[in-house]
Amino acid sequence: MVVNQHLVGTFLLTLDLGGTFVFALSGGMTAVKHRLDLFGVLVLSFAAAVAGGITRDVLIGAVPPAALSDWRYLAVPFVAGLITFLWSPIINWMRNPVQVLDAIGLALFAVDGTSKALAFHLEPVAAAMLGMLTGIGGGIVRDVLVLQIPIVLRAELYAVAALAGASIVVIGHMLELPSAPIAVAGVVVCLGLRLMAIRYGWHLPTARNSHSADSQESTRPG
Predict the structure, then answer these.
(1) pLDDT computed for residue 2 by the predictor
(2) DSSP of 153-205
C-alpha cells in the first residue's frame, strides 16, 4: 500500500509539473506574440503555469499551495519562459502553438486537479468541477494580463473539454479502477476533444447581440 501511494504521488507530481511546463510555454508564447520584454515573458509564463494550481490548492485546503512552497513550481515556469524567449521560432513550427500548448496543459491540469481533489476526499461532482477550474485558471489569468477576453469564454469547447476529462477520472475513481490508466484516458479525452474542436470549429451556441442586429437592419437600404 505504501508503495502504491508513493507511485500515485509520483504520477500526480509528474502530471502537475508537466502541465506547469506546458502552460508556462503557452504563457510565454502569448507574451512573445504581444512583444513583451524578458520580464513580461517570465511573468506571463509563471501566471499561466501556476494560477490554476494555486486556486485548486487553496480551495481544497492544501496550503501553502505547492506552487509557492515547492521550488520546482518556480523553476519550471522560469525555465519554460527562458526557452520561449530565446527559441520561440522553434516552438512556432506547430500550427498555432499557443492553442496546441494550451490544449495539452488544459488536459494535464484538468486530470491532475481532479485526482488531487479526490485525494483530499472531495465529492465526485465537486472534484470534477475543481479539476475543470484547475485546467482553465491559468489560461484565464494569462489572457486577462494581455487584455484579451479569456479563451474559456470565446473558444471552441474549452471548459467542456476539461470537464469531460475530469469526469473520466471521477468515474474511474467511483468504479475503483487503476488511477494511472484512468488518468491517461482522461488526458486523451480532454486533449482529443479540444484539438478536434480547434480543427473543426466545434463550439457551444453563442449569445446574439440583438442591439447589433437591430442596428444592421436599420442601416439596410429600404
Answers:
(1) 42
(2) GTSSSSHHHHHHHHHHHHHHHHTT--HHHHHHHHHHHHHHHHHHHHHHT--PP
